[in-house]
Amino acid sequence: MNRIKPVIVLCLLCSINIVFAQPKTISQKVEALLKKMTLAEKIGQLNQYNGNWEATGPVTTDVGDKLDAIKHGEVGSVLNIVGVKHTRVFQEAAMQSRLKIPLLFGQDVIHGYSITFPIPLAEAASWDLSAIERSARIAATEAAAGGIHWTFAPMVDIARDPRWGRVMEGAGEDPYLGSLIATARVHGFQGKGLGNLDAVMACAKHFTAYGAAIGGRDYNSVDMSLRTLWEIYLPPFKAAVDAGVGTFMNSFNDLNGIPASGNHYLQTDILKGKWGFKGFIVSDWGSIGEMINHGYVKDNYQAAEVAINAGNDMDMESRSYINNLAKLVADKKVPIQRIDDAVRRILTKKYELGLFNDPYRFSDADREKHVMNTPESVAAARDVARKSIVLLKNEHNLLPLSKDLNSIALIGPLVKAKGEMKGFWSLNVGDESQIVSLYEGMQQAAGKSKLLYAKGCDITDTSKAGFDEAYKTAMQADVVIMAMGERPDMTGEAKSRSNIHLPGVQEELIKAISATGKPLVVLLMSGRPMVFNWTADHVPAILYTWWLGNQAGNAIADVLYGNYNPAAKLPITFPRTEGQIPIYYDHYNTGRPAHGDKDVNYTSAYIDLQNSPKYAFGYGLSYTTFGYSNLKFSKKSMAKDGEITVTFDLQNTGKYAGEEVAQLYLRQLVSQPVRPVKELKGFQKVMLQPGETKTISFTINKEKLAFYNDQLQRITQPGEFSLMIGSASDDIRLQDNFFLSH
Ligand code: GLC
Question: Is the pLDDT of residue 14 over 60?
Answer without folding.
Answer: no
